[in-house]
Amino acid sequence: MIVYISHLIKTNATASVSSGSELSSNESTLSSSDPIDSSELPSSSEVLSSSAPVSSGGTSSVEETYHPVPLIDAVKPVPKRDAVDDSYFNDAIFIGDSRTEGFILYSGLSGTTAYTHRGLMVNTIFTQEIVDVGGAKKTIFDALRANPDYSKIYIMLGTNELGWPYGSTFIEAYGKVIDELKSINPNAKIYVQSIIPVTANKSNSDKIYNNTKIEEFNALIQQMTVDKNVYYVNVSEALVGADGCLPDGSTFDGVHLNAAYCGKWLQYLKTHTVD
After folding, report:
1. In this structure, are residues 262 and 99 in contact, taking their beta carbons and an 8 Å threshold?
2. pLDDT of residue 262
3. How far is Cα 214 from Cα 196, in angstroms, rounded to an integer?
4. Confidence label for 63 from pLDDT (cuts 50, 70 and 90)
5. Are 232 and 77 contacting, i.e. CB atoms less than 8 angstroms apart?
6. CB-facing half-sphere around the CA of 81: CA atoms within 13 A
7. What are phi and psi of 91, to 5 degrees?
């Protein structure tokens, strides 16, 4: 069973929308002017909202000897290889905002765990109590400590932080997130995914959520993965067109991917592993 946090979405092993179908009619409730992650993703599953407070948090120290596996060329993203099957993700945890929530819902992936929250950011992840652990709400990090039986962490953050005035502030906070993940489970492989671009229409009409800013943030993220000795997965290259933008018809609001493109995202992850 897939576990979704903080909007805890209950499902019996498979997403309700196949990777080749379109999203439900609820997509009409989203417009290109909606704030990122504040709008309702279409779902046929039961959604339980969280009212946890939001504030910034700290991190813990990490030993410098962290080496999950021998690194490939750290300057480059994880290269393509033969595809793994879905069972590869059975002991993985996906962490992210509403884009990751949509991925879990519509990619067709089952048997994995996802700690997601609409609007999740690299600072609020420390204190938002959004994961149900034994009937009590916990932070993502506390939930990870309570569930040590995982060997891979997939994380994608940064979309909601595009409005931050300083990229240095963002990447410093993201680095603290990675430090905390390594401290909790030093043996887990950490895959840091690139921020997915938006459509050309969204990019050209929005001063904050645009592909120029996303490209700048992705450069910072890639360098951070080198500094932190973790893996950078450039999922964007599987999703964008020649212009570097998400194609028309790939989303329902210019930002959140539809089922077909969530399927492309999953296929990319299956062909870009380090085992």
Report:
1. no
2. 98
3. 8
4. very low
5. yes
6. 13
7. -110, 30
Backbone angles phi, psi at 220, to 5 degrees: -65, -40
**How far apart, in whole angstroms, are the C-alpha atoms of residue 67 and residue 63?**
10
Under 8 Å between Cβ of 182 and 66: yes
Q: Are 188 and 68 in contact (CB under 8 A)?
A: yes
Rounded alpha-carbon distances, angstroms, from residue 183 to 95, 179, 258: 16, 6, 35
Counting runs of H as helices and runs of E as strands, what totals does the chain give? 6, 8
Residue 148 has a pLDDT of 82
pLDDT of residue 76: 66
Angle at 256 between CA 255 and CA 261, to 5 degrees: 110
Question: How would you write 26-64 as a 3-class SS string?
Answer: HHHHCCCCCCCCCCCCCCCCCCCCCCCCCCCCCCCCCCC
Helix or strand (DSSP H, E) at 152: strand 152-156
Which of 127, 121, 155 has the alpha carbon at shortest distance from 58? 127
- Output the six-digit token pair for 119: 């609007």
CB 187 within 8 A of CB 124: no
Secondary structure (H, E, C), 171-197: HHHHHHHHHHHHHHCCCCEEEEECCCC
Respond yes or no on whether the N-terminal peptide bond of residue 6 is cis (omega within 30° of 0): yes
- Extract the tokens encoding 126: 């420390």
From CA 157, how far away is CA 266, in angstroms rounded?
A: 17
**Residue with tokens 């992840």, as numbered in its chain:** 125
Q: How confident is the model at residue 275 (pLDDT cuts 50, 70, 90)?
A: confident
- Beta-bridged to residue 114, according to DSSP, are 4, 94
The residue type of 244 is G
